[in-house]
Amino acid sequence: MSTISRANGTRVWRNWAGNVTARPVRETSPASADEVADAIRRAAEDGLTVKTVGTGHSFTAVAATDGLLIRPGLLTGIRRIDRTAMTVTVESGTPLRRLNTALAREGLSLANMGDIMAQTVAGAVSTGTHGTGRDSGSLAAQIRALELVTADGTLMTCDADHNAEVFAAARIGLGALGVITAVTLAVEPLFLLTAREEPMSFDRVTADFDALYAENEHFEFYWFPHTDNCTTKRNNRSPGPAAPPGAVGAWIEDELLANGLFQVASTVGRAVPAAVPAIARIASRALSARTYTDIPYKVFTSPRRVRFLEMEYAVPREACTAALREVKAMIERSPLKIGFPVEVRTAPADDITLSTASGRDSAYIAVHQYRGAPHRAYFTAVERVMTAHGGRPHWGKLHTRDAGQLARVYPRFGEFTALRDRLDPERRFGNDYLRRVLGA
Question: For the purposes of burial, counting CB atoms within 10 Å of the CB of 157, is it exposed (0-12), middle (13-18) or buried (19 or more)?
């Protein structure tokens, strides 16, 4: 979670990874859309910029401000469930964990989700949070309507038929178009997923990637640098019965190995970089094959307690294996020591203006480094590979792209910035990050 501390009398906000800090002039915790609108109007009168922060799980400074910081902790809960339309309308500050568990109690579920549940709904959709899926896309692609407070304090409701231009952009709006106060998401009856986790060699995964993608509703894999080892995960709908992993087995896999042992290994690797390849070989063999069946959020998501920095790029799906092989070759010929696995996921094309999957089927290649370990040389080298393949950086993860470069990979980039000019001409919701990626 993000944190607030004091330095020389000034309240300091830090994101989850600890790499971004901000010193807002003041904070507010509104309990309604009307209170959000009032806070924005008062900020305008005082000449302050405005940003909303959720749980700080973005690695970029997308939510940083030296003006008014809106904390959405009181904007939580489900407003309504429409079982005819099969939608849920939820307050923007609701943590995904709370939404998922509440939907499950109602016999409902989202179609797809990312691999952690710590983020708020608005924070997750605004930065393009996604899982992996052949047919089902990001959280933002599941939005059916949203409520937005704009720079002049207007409360705007957007869907495919009302304020459609705003709806096309604000689903992944980077906080640049206004403050989201509620989101309506598509839901469906609760279903079961069978997860099949299996070790596989790098050469086999890359050779069979197209088939593995086509044959599974949700396919992803992790490659461990300095090895030829991968861990694959295939999630597919199941008629049941539910067969969740045993409590002891789940604790060993998800807590002891994926978090506890990995934390120790990461700490040792940071202190003794020369040990990283040997640690990677051990870690890549630690997770065993397993199969289990459970409700979606218990299959899609898992705990992430080891803190790290991350960069992720979306490339055209057909470029995925070529790009990944180039990353592997780059690491092998370099002195880099990489202790975190490389994660590969997919998403179908969508129609959201600044979605990383806008207009094209996409594959996501994510690289990580343990917090405090050197990451710049690694991320720079990977970014060079991704941009050569027309890559689009995840909006909430580290990258060095600017507006001129991004405009070349987003055909509708100018559409977004023109809308921003109309909705926020004074840049009430601006900050340094948005100036870089969207332009002044």
Answer: middle
DSSP E strands, 152-285? 155-159, 179-186, 188-189, 192-201, 218-223, 229-238
Q: How far apart are CA 76 and CA 23, in angstroms?
A: 25
Q: Is the peptide bond before 241 cis (omega within 30 degrees of 0)?
A: yes
Instruction: Look at residues 303, 296, 238 and name the one whose alpha carbon lies nearest to residue 100.
Output: 296
Q: Give the pair of three-digit tokens for residue 107.
A: 């016999």
Q: What CA–CA distance (Å, rounded) separates 93 from 134?
A: 29
The values of phi and psi at residue 210, to 5°, are: -60, -40
pLDDT of residue 251: 45
Matching residue, tokens 């989101």: 183
239-243's contacts with Cβ under 8 Å and 24+ in sequence apart are 239/192, 240/192, 240/293, 241/293, 242/192, 242/293, 242/294, 242/295, 243/292, 243/293, 243/294
CB 209 within 8 A of CB 320: yes
Tell me the pLDDT tens digit for each residue of 227-252. 999 999 999 999 999 999 876 455 44
The residue type found at 321 is: T
Count CB atoms within 10 A of the CB of residue 134: 17
Please say whether the dihedral angle defined by the alpha carbons of residues 346, 351, 355 and 358, taken in this order, is positive or negative: positive
Supply the pTM of this predicted model: 0.93
Separation of alpha carbons 188 and 305, rounded Å: 30
pLDDT level of residue 9 (50, 70, 90 thresholds): very low
The model's pLDDT over 124-133, given as tens digits with 9 standing for 90+, comes to 999 999 999 9
CA dist 273 to 277, 283, 378, 384, Å? 8, 15, 14, 24
Q: Which H or E run includes 42?
A: helix 33-45
**Cβ atoms of residues 89 and 183 within 8 Å:** yes
CA 113 to chain centre: 10
Locate tokens 């300091």: which residue? Answer: 12
> Tens of pLDDT along 131-156?
999 999 999 999 999 999 999 999 99
Q: Name the residue with higher pLDDT: 276 or 103.
A: 103
Map tokens 């003794």 to a residue. Answer: 272
| Helix H or strand E encompassing 37 | helix 33-45
